[in-house]
Each structure stands twice: as C-alpha cells, then as structure tokens.
Amino acid sequence: FVGARWLHRGSVQLWVSAPQFEHDLLEGLNPEQRCAVTAPPGPMIVLAGPGSGKTRVLTSRIGFLMRHGALPSTIVAVTFTNKAANEMRNRIKKVLGIKHDSKLQVTVGTFHRVCLDILREFGHHVGLECNFLIFNADQQKELVIQAMGELGISTEKMQPRVLTSAISNLKSQNLGPQSAAEFQRSGQAPWNPKFVNTVQRVYEIYQEELRRSNAVDFDDILLFTLRLLQQYPGITAELQARWQHLLVDEWQDTNVPQYSLVQLLAAPSGGRVLPSVFVVGDADQSIYGWRGADFTNVERFQKEFTADRILLQHNYRSTSTIVEAAQSVIERNAGRVGKTMISTNPGGDLVKLHEVWDDQEEASFVARHSKRLVESGVLLAGYREIAVMYRTNQQSRMMEEEFVRNGVPYQLIGATKFYERREVKDLLAYLRVLANPDDSVSLLRIINVPPRGIGKATVDRVQGLATLWGCSVFQAVKRLSESRQDDVPSATAVADRESDGEAKFSLENLDEAMASLTSALAMQAGLKDRALNSLVCFWEVLETLREGAALCTPAETLELVIAVSQFQDHLMKDESFDERWANIGELSKASGRVTEPGIEGLVLFLEEVALVAGDDNELEEEIKLDIDVKKDPCVKLMTLH
After folding, report:
1. Global pTM?
2. C-beta neighbour count of 350 within 10 angstroms
C-alpha cells in the first residue's frame, strides 16, 4: 500500500499508515459522512437517503477500520446484488491502492454468496452433500408442478407460480409447511383455508424432492445457514472470531432470516463486548416487500442492538426540484423516521403530471409524446434519450402496441435474460446432471435433448419406477440400463423357475435375481425394447460425459457435452442457429472463468451461474445505452425493478 506498512508483533498484524492516508480517506466527506466513517467499532445504523454517498461511506469505513488495526480478513461487507458487490469491491481496491482481486482479503458479496461459502465449508452438518446444487426459478416451478401432479391438482386450475411464490413467502419469514395456517391467520397473506392446505401439502413434497435431489433453492441458502448457526454454537463462535467487523448495505431490504443471521454473526464473543456491525439503509427506499423484505428491520435494529444513528440527508445526484417532489410524496408515509432530503443542485425542469382515463389512453399519450419530443428537435439524440418505466412486465403489452401504431422504435429491456435462453438452459442442465446426478429436474430436461427417441410416455414410466423404487430418475435409468446390458435370464424364465420350485435366492445369484426383477418391473411399466434401447443409449452418453467431467475444467466439459451429445447438429436444424450458437460461445467464455478441474470446478461454475442469474440480483446483463444514435435509436421500456 502506498504510504503505509504492516508491523508484525507476535501473531498480531497492525495496520500502520502515514497521516496522508487518513486525510485522503476523509477528504471530500461532509460532516455527517465523516462522523459515520470514523465512529468507534460498535452497532451503528446510517440512514442514508438516495444520492447521499452511502457507498463511499461504506468503503471509507472499511479503509478506516484497517487504518486502526483491523485485519482485512476479519471484515465482511454484504450487499444485495452482484453488481453492487462488484462496485463495492472496486471502490475498496481504489481506497486501499490495490489493483488485483487476489490481493483483496476483505470478504465482499451478497447474503447468498456469503451463506453459500459457509455451507460449502460446514453444510454437511445440516445434511447437504458437498456437491449440492442451487435450483433456479424454472427448476423450482418443475418441482411444484410435480408436487401438484402427485396431489391431483390441475395446472389449469391453479398457476404453479402462485404456489412457488407462497412457499417463498413462508421461507422469507423462516416458516415451514406446518406454519402456513399461522401465517394466514396473522394477516400476512389473503389465503383461504383450502389454499392454505394446498400450500402446506405442496411445500412438504417440494422440500422432500429438493432433499432427494441434493439441492437447495435461494431461500434455503439462507435457511440452512441459519439452522447451522443455531444448532452448532461452535461453528457460530468460529465464524464470529473469523469475521469481527460486519457491514451491510441496503438494510431496509433484509428479511427475517437475514436479520437473524446478522444477529448471530455479530453477537459479542471472544472478549468483544459490543458487536462491530455497521448497517446502511433507508426505509423510504424499501422496494422488495413483495419478496419478503421487511423495512421495519431498520427500527428493529436500532432498538435491539442499541445502535447509534446517523442521518445522511444531502442528495448529490438529483436536481432540487426532483428531491423536493420526492420528499413531498414520501413524507406522507406513516411511521417513517423523520428525514428531510436537500439538494444544492440547480432546480431543473418541473415534474409534469398527466392524468388519463385508462391504460390504453396512457400508452397512446406516452407514444405520441415521445414522437413529438423527437420530431420537434427537443431531444437532439433522438429516441435513445427516452426511457419508459412501469411497475410490472404485463404493462408493457399496451405500450408496445401503441409504440408500433405510432411508428416509434423501442427496445424491451430484460425480456429474455441470457441464462433463460433455451440452448443455454439445455447445456447447463447437462452440466448440472454431471455435477449432481440426482438432480432429476435437470435430467428430465435433457433426457430427449437432442431427440433420441425417448418420448413422454417413456419418461412418465421411468418416473413411476423411480417413485416405486424410492430413488432419483438417474438411479432408475441406471438400473434399467444395467439390467438391459447384463446377460441374464428373462423375467419369464425366472417366473417359470419359481413355479417349479427351482428359484434359489442365494448370495451367488442375487445380482442375477435383482437384474431379472428390474427387467420384470420394466415390462410391467410398459417399457418396450425400443424405449429401453433409447434409455441405454442415453445412459452411455452420460457415462462417457461423467468420465470426462471428472478430469476436465468446466469449459472442457462443456465442449465435451456439445461434441458427445451432437448438440451443434441439433441446433443447426433451427433457423436461428447463428444467434443460438453465439449464445453458446458466450456460455463457453463464462465457463472459462473457473479453471479448477473435476466435479469441484463444475460445482463452482454452476454456483456462480446460479448467483448471477438468481433472485438476489438485478439483471445479469447490464443495460448499455450506446451514445451512437445510429446503433441504438430506440426508446427503452423497462420495469422499475
């Protein structure tokens, strides 16, 4: 570090720096920001309004802690999105004069990232195998549909996403299936008794299938970590000693499990009387209540941690007109902490409000007004200067119709994300099965991709056998394939021998008997020779890929999957081949970021994909607004989120 050095005294490392370092750290901060950055370690909440420089306060706080003796490895900074984590990581490196991530020993990541690291190290204590995977939204939906099928619930009468949302709402409150009725009685969900019963039963089957697949969903990442820390005080104490300074951004968006995790990790320990926990948030900016965030955690933290409080009320980003307009709206909220935002920026244009009769008139007005702004020359850069924001994706339909009708070019942002594209999902499903063969959802996705003669009837029968045998679909395919390949007597011959009293189930012929029984069950399930042969071919493909995956890096394994499965030939039949093949090229680049070979490397890559494409993020693709009008002459349509 420039102008600084480490002193070693016994086993303790002390950070010593020239006064210039601290001067640079605090330069440009206003009095309230300086107060937050230089506060002594202890519970602190910073109520930071929009545009008030909270990220700089957080990063400067980390630099200040290190300036006063904190080891980088004892500091954890938690954010809510990967994008925010990357931004914070870059700012910390700039503050500390570090160029490469490898030199940065501060832990920076989302709640899910930090908890996932804990589970990779200690998850076996709560029943997770080392190669457990994270199920994404599509896989969660498939499990819910499977549970609905077992319960005889038609997907035409009830949308699966309604149940996945209900299960997630329960998990965000740290509640299991048996607590559905209690959740409904508390007034937190407008569910009728029949729906409560459905949620409870589907939730139970859903969770059992996750366990059988050696997988977790995003909510489980938090809940399994919470269970681990609650049930194993020794592990909790080890983490408390390891991480002595905890900083959390966007505190207003934490839910019940996240609050509890911070309580456990920040509890006084190892001679530490006061927890060194520093949270930044603003209840006025809470936007994730629909997925379990509880803005009352802001006030709860201050009371339960007896925390000091600092207000950041100077907005450096917006015009004074915008700040005053926002203030006049938000100050009407009941129960909010008194906070008055100010801006010294010029006033700027006034906010205009246009009232309309319905959504059709609204969309027509927006399209015509956009066209008028461009044609009148008010917007020199054309349509690219216009963004239309709405609350939900459904509202885009009317906007799109009116934009087309008025001849206004537009681009819908966030419509199909990279990791939701079909060919990408297919190849990731292959990788998931190689990393965790018991992932039945992924296996069923690829069992006939590319087409290999395994139809729906065959799949249904294999699933039925898996249920009968109490195993995963992978294990069922394995047993069927091995029984098919073995040179064993037919099931009919075994039955004849039994009728003659000749069958002897000794250890010597146990394998033969089990193989024959498997064949008999396959026949009873209606699996004919052609279907069994197709299953054997699929099994042989998987075996070849598994042998290769044990030795290859993720990028090499992906290349192997494409070659062995003949995936490129499969795509060439699609008229959009060029676009889809380019997407696979991007996936290959992404897989190249993990260089560790074998299944461990594959799990690491899939973990990164799950976190990037998961619910704890904004979009995995940044919105790039090109300055060149010729390249990007479109109005941008997007949801506020």
Report:
1. 0.79
2. 10
- Measured in degrees and rounded to the nearest 5, phi and psi for residue 340 equal -115, 110
Q: Are strands 44-48 and 308-312 parallel, antiparallel or unpaired?
A: parallel
Q: How many Å apart are CA 460 and CA 49, to the nearest integer?
A: 55
CB 621 within 8 A of CB 416: no
> Terminus-to-terminus CA distance in the chain, angstroms?
39
Residue where the block lists tokens 């998850």: 123
Three-class SS state of 78: strand
Neighbours of 570 (CB within 10 A): 17
Tokens of 209: 């299938």
pLDDT beyond 50 at 15 = no
Q: Are 200 and 181 in contact (CB under 8 A)?
A: yes
Q: What does R_g of the chain's alpha carbons equal in angstroms? A: 29
Provide CB contacts within 8 A for 338, sequence distance 6+: none
Closest CA to 405 of 438, 363, 446: 363
Q: What is the C-alpha to C-alpha distance for residues 23 and 17, in angstroms, rounded to an integer?
A: 11
Nearest to 307 by CA among 266, 262, 277: 277
Q: Is the model's pLDDT at 627 over the cut of 50? A: no
Counting every residue written for the chain, the total comes to 641
In whole angstroms, give the CA distance from residue 61 to residue 80. 18
Q: State residue 134 phi and psi, 5-degree precision.
A: -105, 125
The residues facing 79 across adjacent strands are 110
CA dist., res. 571 & res. 580, Å (int): 8
What six digits make up the tokens of 240?
């408390």
Q: Are 278 and 35 in contact (CB under 8 A)?
A: no
Distance of CA 301 to the CA centre of its chain: 25
Of residues 291 and 435, the one with the higher pLDDT is: 435
